[in-house]
Known about the structure:
2 copies of one chain form a homodimer. Chain A is an alpha+beta fold. Chain A is about 30% helix and about 30% strand. Chain A has 3 helices and 5 strands; from the N terminus they run βαββααββ. Chain A has helices spanning about 20-30, 55-65, 65-75; strands spanning about 1-5, 30-40, 45-50, 90-95, 95-100. In chain A, strands 2-3-1-4 form a 4-stranded antiparallel β-sheet. Mean pLDDT of chain A is about 80; it is low at about 10-15. Chains A and B meet through β1, α1, β2, β3 and β4 of A and β1, α1, β2, β3 and β4 of B.
Amino acid sequence: VSSGFCMGFMIAHHSCVRGSADIFAMITACNIRNYSIYLKDGLLFAYYEYVGTDYDADMAKMAADPRTQEWWAIMKPMQKPLDTRAPGEWWAEMQEIFHVD
Amino acid sequence: VSSGFCMGFMIAHHSCVRGSADIFAMITACNIRNYSIYLKDGLLFAYYEYVGTDYDADMAKMAADPRTQEWWAIMKPMQKPLDTRAPGEWWAEMQEIFHVD
């Protein structure tokens, strides 16, 4: 299952973050694979594939991780979520309208 | 190598197109894999992975395919490319700023 999300502007300096290897390992531990973020005109698009069986539980595990919380505390002030996002969303989920393997 | 692109509004009715199986087969023949298109607020994001060795040659092959030309003739009038696209672009390439396998 692949997912697409988009939101407003962010500047990322991943290599500057203490413990970024820990954050990457947590992403993998939460069954996220092939995770990319793209930027164009101040708009971000994130793509990843979820390979687990309990998405909500994995997302809760990620949110509970202290290193991930530290990372989000740096990143979130640089992000402006879309006004059209759904209630409870930060990144706004996009509708998949086409897929060819 | 994965790629991200975005552009303006499109309405797609893929199943209505004659020979859509041919078009999908041509996409695969041109070494495109894991190709998805997402929609949010009239903005499209396309993601795919190129697994060949000569991207320009594969894109030329796709562009020369009659079924693909028929498909594009239907789709392009429904698409509004981004004003900020590079010269020669239709879909505007996005910069990949983050990746975790």
